[in-house]
Amino acid sequence: MRVLTVSGDDLTNTDDLFKVAMHQIADAFAQLEKARLVGKLKAARERKRATGAKVEGRRPHTELLPDVVSLAKRLHRASPKTGKRRSLREIAAELARAGYINERGKPYAALSIKMMLGDQTGCKRDRGRIDIQTFRGSLDKRIQLGQPCLRNRPVS
């Protein structure tokens, strides 16, 4: 990569010792400014975290779309006639019929409805988080029972 000035001087030319020195000084100041900015932003996040406010991560549905969450909770209640609740997919379909769709223009996924309802446990797909002890226990059980697992799954 070559860096040229407006007058046409090549700043990447290493023949001139002063140009090399100026480039090194500019690099040192850039590194200093980056370290200062990172420290300032970290201190600001820590101050905000100390107040109990949410600092990082996505904002929850309850904060972004409170009317959608309240409707989902109302739809999740058990029917007084049958005593049964709607499934998460049925709730998503009802929300779509009411005009509430996700940011991609599709009905909400069952997992999104589950998160809206505040039930963050028991998800089949816990967003990549896995308890390694539980995984090892279930894997050992499958091996003992002769069931297919990751190690001895038949190749198709």
Shape: elongated
Structural class: mainly alpha
What is the residue-averaged pLDDT? 79
The fraction of residues assigned to DSSP E strands is under 5%
Low-confidence stretches: 121-127, 149-154
> How helix-rich are the residues, as a percent range?
40-55%
Overall domain count: 2
Instruction: Give the radius of gyration.
Output: 28 Å
Tally of strands: 0
| Annotation field: number of helices | 6
Largest sheet: none
Spatial gap, N to C terminus: 49 Å
Short description:
The protein has 156 residues and is mainly α. The chain has helices at 17-50, 61-64, 66-76, 88-97, 110-116, 132-145. The chain folds into 2 domains: 1-56; 61-116, no CATH class.
Main traits of this protein?
single chain; mainly alpha; 0% strand; elongated
Describe this structure in words.
The protein is 51% helix and 0% strand. The model is unreliable at 121-127 and 149-154 (pLDDT under 50). The protein contains six helices and no strands. With 156 residues, the protein is mostly helical. The radius of gyration is 28 Å and the shape is elongated. It folds into two domains: 1-56; 61-116, no CATH class.
Write the layout of secondary structure elements.
Layout: H1 17-50, H2 61-64, H3 66-76, H4 88-97, H5 110-116, H6 132-145
Helix pairs in contact: 3-4, 4-5
